[in-house]
Write the structure tokens for this entry.
Amino acid sequence: MADAIAWQESLLPIAGVQLRLRRAGKGPPLLVLHRDTGTLEQLPAYAELARHFELLLPEHPGYGQSERPTWMRSVRDLAAVHRWLLAELGLPKAALLGLGFGGWVAAEMASMAPLDPAQLILAGPMGIKPPEGAILDQALVSHIDYARAGFHDQAAFEALYGADPSTDQLVEWDICREMNYRIAWKPYMHSLTLAHLLGGVRAPTLLLWGAEDRVVPPAAAAGWQRAMPRAQRETIPGCGHCIEMEKPAELVRLVTTFAQRG
Amino acid sequence: MHIMYFTEQPMSAYPAEEGLKFGATALMFPNTHFDPVAGSRLYNEFIEQYKLAEAVGFDGIMLNEHHNAPFCMQAKANIFASILAAITERVKIVILGNPLPLSENPVRIAEELAMIDMISKGRLVSGFVRGGGQEQLATGVNPAYNRERFEEAHDLITRTWTQPGPFRFEGNHYHNRVVNPWAVPLQKPHPRIWIPGVISRETVIWAARHRYPYIALNTTVEQTNRIWELYDRTAEEVGFTSGPEYHGYLKQVHVAETDEKAIENARQFTWMQGEFTGLAHPVWSTPSGYSSPDQRRGFVEFSTGRGSSPRRRPSFEEQIRDNMIIAGKPETVIAKLRQVMEQTRPGIMSLWANDGFMSQQDSLTCIRLLGQEVLPAMREAAKALDLKSPFEAETPVSLAFSQDLKPRPAAAE
């Protein structure tokens, strides 16, 4: 896998807050929408994707170093902010790669502008209530236990976060958590309307699921496939919820193959 | 001085070893460990305690509520307040307090409280709280909006009590098309509001800005005096001079015939501390967004075992030594209470007298001894120290209903 990448970083005023955006790489634009636990600065998956795409990695408003919009009440609001960001960048047709919670954001964005995204790639997306089981409730588990639950292989977690994550990391997770609660508390991490709004989306859609996902049960894919019957589904064996961190090469292979075909 | 009787209403009849095994005794500790037969007996024992507390001369009975935990059996303070409204004659019914953010309809709370006030013939003191962290999870209420909901619900309730209906209320969290309940409080302009708290600076400042007495819950002498400094400074800023009539203090105080027996019984106070803090899951007791951002680092450190609980209590022996728990025969307790009263000068005191597995017999003996010997001595000390209650000082119920505010310096704006 490629080395660390040198991000070009900027702060953009969107919807009354300063949004932190990092960009790197060359190729068709790909907007990466991060998880409910934020994102690390560097990931092997980012470095590899930057070889194929112009990677756009904003931090959601209220997460990481992006300012919190106190008015924001829903994930759909968050999606509208990212649509605004793409308009600001002149890249409304950027492909969308949504990771977990970010997959929910990406799907909301696509439902708002069904003709726009070049491709829609959803990796273990939250946002639709699983037909059985429930999306793992972070309100009931510690920050570390929740982050670890995203990995089937705990060694992969420890390689990125350390066996004992730093207090700074815990603080960052707590800030993410507070924002998750502000916009996705009830119903918890899903929408009652999204599934009904996805039928118009024209973008080729790829649904990825880690076979061992303990955060969003793989059974949830059925709901997505009902809402988006043309979506292609791939399951990654031996992988938990955080596909880009646990099986980066596999994710990059699937994303690039799909994008080239799309 | 206003002196209240308080018990957490502990559900002591559950297998304690199961709690230790589970690692927590709140929120997710299975309610299969609750025994309604014991619950029925205990509720009725608490009623007996309250009746005796009135008979022996307490001025008030303090009530509270918690959810999903054996340390407190009151799941709705207004239910016990209603019972007391009917079965007592004289005592103030002091709810400390109704956890406002847990309510989806504060007008309903305003109605219930108005009914209690009328039935009790104007004996209600209506405190409000934010509710513990676990309570937010137990009731499905968003912890990230806890303070917003608290303040908005408070505004709606006080308007419901004082503004002629019908009117419309549109907030961020509460939206009422028609506010026009037919039950309104007997006390005018409205029942007194007291605000209890432990460690949140924001709540102290909020209480002072509204001119509501603040009740420090079982804090140390040093913490208590720091709270008064902050309260009094804020009071000056908004135009009134604070004093004992705005300062309330809850203390764990147990009396028995002998020092030995009292100390032995008082060990039960650590039962509740174990329940409330030692055996609480930190992620449940402090959900993200519930506390102020400056406590974020402390709480995440605590949640991973890297830091101690910001609500930590020292050992029983230390608590006895530092007068955090006061226990003994009446003379012992009187001397210690005098000392604490001199050190903290409250106009309101609540005596948290019985907890854990203390027997009903010992609890009743404690209440009797408090009434016969301790209360008269406290009143005498309060007189000597000039510690007046809000009733004795006839303070206004709130800043909004104050006629005596000092003009604020223009530069303060």
